[in-house]
Amino acid sequence: FWLKPFFSTRRNPLRRKAPVSARKCDQFDPERMDFTLSSKHKREVEQRRKEAKRKLEQKKRDDELRAAMEQDLLKREEQRHEEIQQDRLRQEQEALMNDGVRYRVQLQPYPCVRSDDKLELPASALAELERQGALERGELLTFSVSVPSTLGGGTVLGRTHAGVAEFTAEEGSVGVPAKVALCLTKGAGLATLAAVGKVEVRFVRLPRSAKSLVRFQPRGEGFHAGGAKAVSMNLEHVLQETLRGHTTLTEGDWLPIRHEGSTFELVVRELEPEQQLALINTDLTVEVMPSEQTEAELQAQEALRLAQEAAAREAEEREQRRLERARRKASELGAEPPAGGDVVQLLVRLPGGGRLTRRFARTEALGRVLDWVESEPDSRVEAGAFRVVQKWPGHCRELGPAEAAESLGSLGFARQEALFLQHIAPGEENADVGAPNLSSPAEAEGAKRLISLPARRLAVPASADGGAWSAAEAVANSILDSRLNGEGTPTHDEAEEPVLEELHGNDLVEVFHRLKAQGMAAQEAAMAAKKYAAQLRELGEMGIEDWVEAARLLETHGGRLVRVMNVLIKRAAEAEAKATSEAAAAQGPASEAITAEEVAVSDVA
Predict the structure, then answer these.
(1) pLDDT tier at 42 (50, 70, 90 boundaries)?
(2) 379: which residues sit within 8 A by CB, 6+ positions away?
């Protein structure tokens, strides 16, 4: 019987009871189940709604993008068709003008030493033009020269026209004088043509006129040294010598002129009767416009004058509106009340020293006082642009539209009150009626100095950048300087040859020995020294070391120094381009290795 307590059927007191919530979970709760299902359904419906909205918005954006792309494609297609149509019309016009002759080729440009605008074309150009009968009429041969838009980084450098001097250039190349190169590159510089692969040369017969007019505009500061001192030159003589030998003129061309070793550039702004003309058998009238700096200053002055007139008109109209509003306010005020106990005598002091006085009933609103101030012409105030100030030592209160509904009594006005008129826009009260707010002369002068113009490009000697184009430009400038100084009157290519002093005696012997030392036969060296000693000495002073090759070139070109210099400059340019390409090819693998190493390092990082 003593074991009975341990086997009793009553519940073990050590056994933990389950929590009430757990016991309740064992029971089925339909209401709680419905609430859970309803919440889940709402969340799913909201998610589906958001997803549908997102898809709809995405579809709308895709449709808009597709429509924009189609519109852009359509616009580009229309533009392409228009360009094709314009090009077809231009070709038809050119074919009609050229009598069916078509010559269009892309050639490698190289600098040639000429002071005119004539090209050096390959012999194949002459053969093609002769085959099409372009030489039968014996007319002047003119060409359009341009940089194709697909070359030079996609940038069109320029377009001009030129004649032809000879057909001696190597196949695939064209000799371009410095003046023609300047019209193609303009402010980019002649060296830009070195980076351009090819230029397009197209045969075109330019119109002629018995009388023509050209208007030149000096670039930058014009004929001024440092923008201050004007350069004194015989411009008529300079233009005559500069245009001598020129074949064509085109609107937009840059024409460099020389004076005392400096280059001034003129821009062909207007050309009549056509935008491009052949300068053969024409009476050319030249007009010089104000320089770009002067024109910009005149435009700034005109703009300032127009702004002043507009400001004056606006001020006058604003004053008329103010006076009209003042008359209307005055008619709405009514009669002034007589003096009495319930009347306030107001004195308003104006910023210019004047004063206004009037009586108001104490029950009148402050808005009536503001209307009265506006109705006085001497106040010169705009609606809402002023305040009346109640001020005495230790007290200052501004009264305006915010207090317009309050009566004078509620504002604490005494029988006599002195107020001060304050303009919201300071300085407006001091402006003269009818006078605009104009800039001072110093500000106008400062505005002139802020005019931004392209700097005048001065021709640099060959030593400045070592380029072949700059060397050719320097030689052409030297030839033009000689002409301007009266050293010969060139009427053909031979006349552009520099005048050299003949060598005698020991000088001839030195040339002979140098030719013989470089490997030339004695008899050939003696003949070359006798014929071309002065030219060889001149080439030697220019840095030409191979006199044997120079003597052979002189023999080939009839002793013409300029022609030989053209050939040597072209060869130097080709050698420089070849060395640059070889150096770039040699550096290619190393740069690729560095790039691969950098990529590997970045991947590790």
Answers:
(1) confident
(2) 348, 350, 356, 373, 386, 421
| C-alpha–C-alpha distance, residues 97 and 202, integer Å | 13
Q: End-to-end alpha-carbon separation of the chain, Å?
A: 84
Nearest to 204 by CA among 149, 251, 145: 145
Q: List, in sequence order, every residue forming a beta bridge with 255; answer none if it has no partner.
A: 266
Q: What is the DSSP letter of 268?
A: E
φ, ψ at 6 (rounded to 5°): -75, -20
564-593, pLDDT tens digit by residue? Answer: 887 887 777 777 777 777 777 776 544 443
Number of alpha carbons in the 13 Å side-chain half-sphere of residue 335: 3
112 HSE (CA, 13 A, CB side): 25
Band of pLDDT at residue 447, cut at 50, 70 and 90: very low
Kindly report, residue by residue over 475-524, the tens digit of the pLDDT.
Answer: 887 777 777 776 554 444 455 566 677 777 788 888 888 888 888 888 88
Structure-token pair, residue 376? 């006085």
Contacts 24+ apart (CB under 8 A), 477-482: 477/178, 477/256, 477/258, 477/263, 479/113, 479/115, 479/562, 480/115, 480/241, 480/242, 480/258, 481/258, 481/261
CA distance 220 to 452: 10
Q: Please, is 523 exposed, middle or buried when counting C-beta atoms within 10 Å of its C-beta (0-12, 13-18, 19+)?
A: exposed
Beta-strand relationship, 159-169 and 254-259: unpaired
